[in-house]
Amino acid sequence: MRFRTPSSQWRRKCLCPNRLCGKKLLCYASLAVVVTAGLACQREYPLAMDGSARFDTWLLGRAQDGGVPHLGCVRECCRVARREGRVEYPCSLGVRDRLTGALLLIEATPAVESQVAMLHTLAEVDPRDRVPVDGVLLTHAHIGHYAGLMQFGKEVAATDELPIFCTPKMADFIRAHAPWSGLVTGGHVDLQEIVMGTDGAAVFEPVEGLRVEAIQVPHRDEYSDTVAFRLHGPAKTLLWVPDIDQWSRNEGMIERLLDGVDVAYVDGTFYDEQEVGRCADEIPHPFMRDTLTTLGDLAKAHPGRIQFIHLNHTNPALSDLKLVAEIGERGFDVPEQGRWVGL
Ligand SMILES: [Zn+2]
Ligand SMILES: [Zn+2]
Ligand SMILES: [Zn+2]
Questions:
Q1: Going from the N-terminus, what domains does the chain have, and what CATH number goes with each?
Q2: What is the pTM of this model?
Q3: Which residues are found with C-beta within 5 Å of the ion, ligand 2?
């Protein structure tokens, strides 16, 4: 099933929160044009009259794909974490629709079971048997972002046509490679493809009322392309961009991603080049130190708007509280696991 944009019709299966109906109802809605030129992103949904949120979001992890402790790392960062039993999950966001109780997951990480359990606890939902969530949104085909999908298959949760929202390239990758291909042939997932418009963006509604923009971003794209998500609730807009190449790679990209955003979870993989011990040119991620400069004025004007996620196990901001405080003084944030934002 494919989403087409702009201005095409789309359909999706009913996302009843507990699937009590058990039916595959088809819902229809029209898609809106994503963005017009440059920065002119328009909200499709008016702010709630009282400005209250309809959607809860929780940060279910803030680390890079390998988490902390990181397999194979014998440096202090992970030695100490192992000794103290400290665990940092790969970055993921949980979403709850207060109206229907529907739950969404952004990214399916190798720690998906723990993170869905965390989401259930935070959302105070009853056990959901084989419907742990009602949909999953994937950014790209690097293991920290999709490998957890295998847990939805026959050997584990054995979900029934769980909607997976991803680009056609990502969907092709899943169909072509075991063990993920078994999810499709076994009917455990329903790949719902987000087809980009000529402007490299698309809009879809994984649950009715939550308008999500997928925007293509430059990244190491060996297996699939990569997208960022902008989630528009009635109260706030949230940006999710855990993996991206340097902000300057595409002209106007950073402005487009951040336009109208209240909270931006952005790529903070490495603090600086000293941390990776390689030439800065070989590292595609924007260094946190550079982002602190590039977005310094914005952060100062809107403290807390820019929040760093996808932190590598070596990133000092994961454990150096003095550094985190300094980052905070500059208007940025390194959010803790479990951070809530209402949309
Ligand atoms: Zn990653
Ligand atoms: Zn380490
Ligand atoms: Zn990646």
A1: 2-8+52-342 (3.60.15.10)
A2: 0.85
A3: 70, 73, 75, 77-78, 313
